Amino acid sequence: MKAIPTPFMWAIRKASAITGNRGRSIALLLQVVQKVRSTKWNQAQWQLIKTDLFTAGKMLREHALGRYRMRSTRLLLILSGALIYFVNPMDMIPDYLIGAGFVDDFAILTWVFRAGQEEIKRFRIQYGLFSVEAVATYQ
């Protein structure tokens, strides 16, 4: 896994306080769901990020509930940090800047999902989430 981008470090620090707390983890996931629902997902590449966001959220929920164990604490932190970064409207490029506000969010999410692709793949196999529809409808 490559070095963590500097603008993303504040989210990692915040994630370290959240990941050990089931209630805070679930509250973060609820914020992610709200932001995913309110975001316009126009481009095809953003649909892939949306699918990975759903998967990451499900991974973190299952981890918080003790039903899935992530192999890497570092990956747990960067996934949590990526979700924190995504829900925070005032990050490196504020989300209210139409057209540009989500560029940094998607760059961070893409970096994290690539860094964690093996764990994400393992989770999808374990839970039978092989299609976009399966990921989106998994309870």
Tell me what you see in this structure.
This protein is an all-alpha fold. It has one domain (6-137). Helices cover 67% and strands 0% of the residues. Helix 1 (9-18) packs across helix 4 and helix 2 (22-38) packs across helix 4 (73-87).
* Helix run count: 7
Largest sheet: none
Supply the helix-strand structural class. mainly alpha
Compute the number of strand runs.
0
Q: Overall pLDDT, averaged? A: 81
Radius of gyration: 14 Å
Percent helix = 55-70%
Shape: globular
Give the end-to-end Cα distance, rounded to a whole number of Å.
30 Å
Beta-strand fraction estimate = under 5%
Low-confidence stretches: none
Q: What's the number of domains?
A: 1
Taken in chain order, the helices and strands follow as HHHHHHH
Q: What is the topology?
A:
Elements: H1 9-18, H2 22-38, H3 44-64, H4 73-87, H5 103-115, H6 117-127, H7 132-137
Helix pairs in contact: 1-4, 2-3, 2-4, 3-4, 3-5, 4-5
Tags for this model:
single chain, 139 residues, mainly alpha, 7 helices, 67% helix
